[in-house]
Structure formats: C-alpha cells, structure tokens
Amino acid sequence: MGQGGKVMLTRRHFLQISTLTALTLPVWRCWGANATGPSPFELVEQWYAQPADWVPNHPGLPIVHFRHALAYDPLNAKLQRSGWRMQWQGQPFAKPYFHSQAHVLHVVTAGTGVMQTGGDKGKQVQLRQGDLLFLPAGTGQQLLSADPRFQTQAWYPEKQSWDVCRSALSTSAQCRQSATTLSAASRKMMQAFGTQFLTT
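^ thats the sequence. predicted structure below, dont judge the formating
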C-alpha cells in the first residue's frame, strides 16, 4: 500500500500477475468453448483430395479423421440423430474402390489398420479403436494393412444408397457424384468437432 491509500504495483507483482494470466487464459478459453461439457471428438486432420486417375474424389467436401475422445459418450445415438445409419461392419475392401453417390463414416471399433484414401497417390491414414474416418462420395478407399482384430462400422446418410465402384464414372454419373451433398444436421455435427468446410 502506498501513500494516500494507493496500491503500488511493483515489478515483482506485475510479473506474478502476468504469469498467472498466461497460465489460466488457455483454461478459460477451453471452458468457454466447452461450456456445455467436453467435446466427444478430437479433430486429428482434414484435407481435400484431387481427382486421381479413375478415382474422382469429391470437389467440395473434405476427408476428415476424428478421434472419439470420450469412451462413455453415446456415439451411435449422436450419429442416428444426425441422420446416419450403420449398414455393415467388418473390414473394408483390400482393393481400391469408392462409393459414387454416398458418403461413408468408418467407425473403428477394434484393432488398428492403415487405409489409403484418395487413390494410389493419396494419403495413408493410421487408424485405431475409437477413430472415425469421414469419406465423401467419390473418395478412393482401400485397406492396406490391419491386425486380425481390426473392425469398422460403416455408417451412411439414411437417404443415400452406397455402391462399390472400381473404374471411372461416365460424365453424367460423375456430375451426380460431385453433387452429392451433406445434410445440415451432419454439417452441424462435424463443425462442432472442428471440421472446416469450404462450401455451404
């Protein structure tokens, strides 16, 4: 306390306050971003794939790799509320393929594996239990390697029908593929977990 009842801020006090602020500011930011609770997903990476040989990939939607951070979070219920339905489970094909008019969300339920995305020269993704891999319509996919326990659940938007393509699409079919959209509910769910979309 200084003369006349004024508070004197010494250099030592200033440094202490600055240090405390630096330590607590990230916590405040996290609390503000997660005021309703921690996010159940961690965004590992997202990227856009260019057309590659006979694999069209998607011109407007990214490939997204998530990690399910909370074991107790009811993932299936969240996906169903956002309009997704699980249609098969097992291991993806070991030969390259894509879906022409359906997005797919692979949910890894056991083991570890490596998937090739976007065609022969695309990106390889290391997957483990709890990971989710979103592949928009037209995205090349192939299981390169996996341990014997590796399993995924394949979830698709409820109004989209999936197929298996292993050759180039006709011009009209490629127009339909590139126009395959993502519902507002699915976008909202993915944006909440950090996905950045270039188009609306």
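The two ends are 58 Å apart (CA to CA).
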